[in-house]
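explain this.
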Amino acid sequence: MPMELPPGTAAYSDKTPPPSHHQLLVLLGLFLAGIAIAIAIAFWLAGALVWFIPTRVEQQLGRAIVPIYAAQAEVSATQATLNQLLDRLETYLPAAQTNGRNYQVLYVPDQTVNALAIPGDHIIIYQGLLAEVASENELMMVLGHELGHFANRDHLRGLSRQVLIRLSLSSLLGDFGSWGSIASASISTLSTAQFSQQQEQHADRLGLTLLNQVYGHVAGATDFFDRLSRSERPGLAILASHPPSKKRVRNLERLIAQQGYRVGDKAPLPDALRSNL
């Protein structure tokens, strides 16, 4: 009568010994390597495919996000003046970056020191940020930086990476969330986008270029970031979504020297901005 093994007991024999710890480690390494390769491919595809996504797709995504900020925004002379400054920058953008676009600023009367570009061609400027700028030039640098995110399609790049990574992991691990959960998470990611240090540097580069084209010089390009650097808490730069302000200042100063940009006189903030701070 054959001996029955308890349920769940492996039926190993001398001919089929259990896997060794070394073999298990090799299998685990291969599995993790597969995940790493899948994520790397997703990142590469996201960068390659983002340029084929029509502008209207990004604007449709914005319809789910812009109303959230529009409800907080203040329709005022401050917002109108910010849009006038943005229009001046926009005239120097290549035609490919303005076709089908309708760039606008939403001014949010909140003490948050931040500015962000969101899908739907909108730039959010917080009152807290305006309180930190001392000249029109440095404000234009901030606005030009945000236009740089649109030019580089950073929002769609981040969204594409998230979707492709989820799909890659789903193919390796099984069900990793429904399309509904992916879409919901993606909208959340778009509305609170944090870009890589490389993306931030590319946006700074366009901001500097636009600043020079508007004024014929780059005075004020580093002022805002230099001021921020004095109040930043120390931390690991590699973990930050934005480069540390001191590093941004160094990068901009190096770029200014490389391009041979001159530094002229700064223009004061328009009255409509100073009177609302």
Remarks:
- The mean pLDDT is 78.
- Residues 154 and 199 are 7 Å apart (CA to CA).
- The two ends are 91 Å apart (CA to CA).
